[in-house]
Design brief:
The protein is 44% helix and 15% strand. The chain has a 5-stranded parallel β-sheet with strand order 5-2-1-6-7, with helices on both faces. Strands 4-3-10-9 form a 4-stranded mixed β-sheet, covered by helices on one side. Strands 8-11-12 form a 3-stranded mixed β-sheet, with helices on both faces. With 318 residues, it is an alpha/beta fold.
Amino acid sequence: MEIRKVALIGAGAIGGYIVWGTADVLGDNLVVVAEGERAKRLKSRGITVNGRHYDLHVQSSQEAADADLLLVAVKYTGLEEAMDDIVRIAGNDSKKNVSGNNRTIVMSLLNGIDSEELIAERIGWEPIVNAYMTIASHRTGSDIQIFQPEGEDGLLYGDHNTAEKTEICASLERFFATTRLHTTLVPDIQKRQWAKFIRNIAFNLPQAVIGAGLGVYHDSRHALWYSLKLEEEGRRVAAAYGMEIAPLQRERFRYTPATRYSTLQDLDAKRPTEVDMFCGVLMQKAKEKGIEVPVAECTYHIIKALEEKNAGRFDYQQ
């Protein structure tokens, strides 16, 4: 199995990292999937990653259906809208791809623990390889800044059914070795995803509610209490699903105290957040096991209210 053509859905911060790492290797065989006005905008503007401009080769999902690998890098709020494109590209196991493969490999690069489940409901589990990202980035329009792109952060992936290196994972490993992307094949991918999920809930969300950078967890015992309570709830739910997650490391952070993670960036820019992917999913998973998560539930409603505030819902007249 060979990977020669890659389709990318989503050209935000995560998509920008993929473009940065693969464009020089793939050329026009890296395609961004879009149609209508969005396709025109991406074609005309391209994107800029770490100061370098990249023109984008844009195709419809029909045109991209011969891709060997599909990378889904949309926001959680855009996953349902992207489903039809995912099905067109990866839902047909009888077509032949650029490299003669019978099925397009699918990797979801969304944070969280349920995007693969949602995609599998539409196309089945067979073509899906579980994955998650650990990069720090900031996006302003089409200008993306990836911090430490060649450092230890990057893309982690693996087969959710087995710790063995499958044929598909071996193909991915060979392909990634030709790129600038930092990637790691891991044997315990689902446990790793749960750990990242809990880390996002514990570190991403309290700073968004407080409106402060990452240093708040060192400089405020109240913020630290808040973060620890969310971590505790997340680890309790994970354990109910057979995932024993070790306490998060808090001795040091690899980023500056001013670092603002994605949820706070979204609130700063008055964009919808991904709190449904974090607290919303945790609440759902907890309910299925009869576990109460009051701090996560409170956090969910506070961030939803902040989204409403950003949308002007509370611009009351005197």
